[in-house]
Amino acid sequence: MTRLYFGDNLKKLRKERKLSQEQLAEMLNISRQAVSKWEAGKTYPDIDNLVLLRNLFNVTLDDLVLNECVDKCKGVSGIDKLSEETNNKSKDEEYDNEEDNDLSTKLMMGGMIIGMAIGFITDNFMWGTVGCFIGMGLGYVVEDIISAKTKLKR
């Protein structure tokens, strides 16, 4: 189970900005007690307040909720790691992956379009839904097969 560090991170970010619980509460249009409960880990904010906090402190939701310490996240975030991995890939691998993703996307879209067309023609929209799911399923199966094939090449 993932441990949430929201309360610790919120308190640290609030103190870095030299805000009191009351000042933060006023910014969010909530009570000071709500902020206190969030920091103590007794309750958690709703999604609207999480988004406001994210914007206010200029951090990601993952940094705000999941990460042990906001400082640790600033240096090496998942985005930094991902960009490093992407830069290390050869151009051939990137080209192959684009082709693979393109094929699965085309399968998904094709199934959806065919299903919708059959749904319109037969005046039974259940066929549209079935076509969408079949197209998505085929797309994911092809994606898995291609990724397994790629792993075997390495």
Describe this structure in words.
The protein has helices at residues 6-16, 21-28, 32-40, 47-57, 61-65, 70-75, 78-88, 91-122, 125-153. It contains 9 helices and no strands. The longest helix is centred in the last third of the chain and has 32 residues, at 91-122. α8 runs antiparallel to α9. The model is unreliable at 70-87 and 89-95 (pLDDT under 50). The radius of gyration is 23 Å and the shape is elongated. It is 79% helix and 0% strand. With 154 residues, the protein is an all-alpha fold.
Characteristics:
single chain; 154 residues; mainly alpha; 9 helices
Distance between the termini: 32 Å
What is Rg? 23 Å
Regions with little confidence, pLDDT below 50 for 5+ residues:
70-87, 89-95
Helix content: over 70%
Shape: elongated
Assess the beta-strand content as a share of residues: under 5%
State the assembly state of the protein chains: single chain
Order of helices and strands: HHHHHHHHH
Q: What is the residue-mean pLDDT, rounded to a whole number? A: 74
Q: In total, how many beta strands?
A: 0
- Major beta sheet summary: none
Structural class computed from helices and strand pairing: mainly alpha
Number of helices: 9
Helix-strand blueprint:
Elements: H1 6-16, H2 21-28, H3 32-40, H4 47-57, H5 61-65, H6 70-75, H7 78-88, H8 91-122, H9 125-153
Helix pairs in contact: 1-3, 2-3, 8-9
